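lol ok so funny story. i was supposed to be doing the assay writeup but got distracted and ended up predicting the structure for this chain instead. priorities right. anyway since i did it might as well share w the group, maybe its usefull for someone
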Amino acid sequence: MLKSHLRSAIALVIGAALCLALPGMACAENQTYYLGTKEKAKIDTGYAESEMLKEADPHYGWDLGQFYISGYTAVQRGDDYVFLKTVGDKVSLNFRLDQDINRLNNNDKLSISDDKNGYDQSFDIEKSEPGFGRGTLIVRQTDYQNAHSAPQVYNDYLSGVAIGADTQVGLYEEGDYEVALDYEIKNDVRTVGGLGPIPTVSIAPEYSNYTIRFKFSVRNGNTMVFLFDAENGSELTNESTAPNGFTIDLARSRYLGINVKREVLSGDHFDVRSNAPAADGTEYTDEGIYTITANNPTTGQTTEKIIYVGSDPQLKAYAVNGYSLDQIRDKVSQGAKINDDGSITWPETASEAFDDSVPSVSQASEKGEGAVAQSEEQEAGINPAIVVVAVVVLLGIVFVAAKKRNSRSIADGDDVSAHDGGRE
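and the output, tada:
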């Protein structure tokens, strides 16, 4: 009970935040949908036989009131209307009376009659005292087991409804509902009196029967299955481990389809041991990996969760990490450890060597050999920068020496010329 209340409170907070954050979003309390139109029934047939409403009919061209549904999140339209509710929604049926039942359509001659011999054939409601009174409202539910409840009958309903007021008929959970409002109109077409102290007397008034009938359904719009640890009752999230098993809680979503598949480790592969529908409250304790699939036939949405049951470490790792069995076994053979929660860790001394983000042993070996070769090459060879500097210096020395040699040759030639001239 506490878990259910906690889920409801969280959902209410989230829903309220979304409504405030997203002004364009249709919040449940602002949703309304109108249902039902009037039909004429043959007089005294239990409102079962209909006939055409013609222009000469006293009820032609105006309506008694409106039924509408509120408090839902979404509606699916079709032959029958399905209203989807989520956590926190309160789906209600309401009625607004638009006419003065003593002066219908502003006509003093028309009023809602006290139908003393009223009965409803469709709902198996017999004639009884004091009769239907001034309108009778009938609501019947069919639950998820296709069981029909006894009709809720509100005799003399219109007498207790204020004109113009929105009156709530009731709040409704998941199920299928049938609604009917049966009423009789009295038409005082012939009257005498009405002069001075003489009262107006109706002579041979005319009566006609009418009904407003419709059906609607309420479904849970959320495709959610809750899983709880069979030992301590804590809620399990997707890919959780439950050594002692788990139970299924549908949170009163009676129309969800739940399927549970159980797989076990058989040698080096997985074998499916069961794959079948599940019911609310079912407990699972056998070891294996469980895939729980919730299907909402109304919305077509599905939700899948995976839970591990048992103590086999390899299955825990498989359920939590998403590795294949071969990958898990390879990591274990290299020194990895599978923890109680299924996570895989490496010893601190080997974390760099075996971590997925670090190169493998062969890659590290190749890298090491390359580094050694490069180091030896650097030691045996000459640094390119040093070579460039040495070449520049050597060229400078050669250039200077050549220049000096050239200068010396010129000087010697001048001396020889001078000597020869003196001899001549």
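The CA atoms of residues 142 and 386 lie 96 Å apart. The radius of gyration is 46 Å.
back to the writeup now i swear
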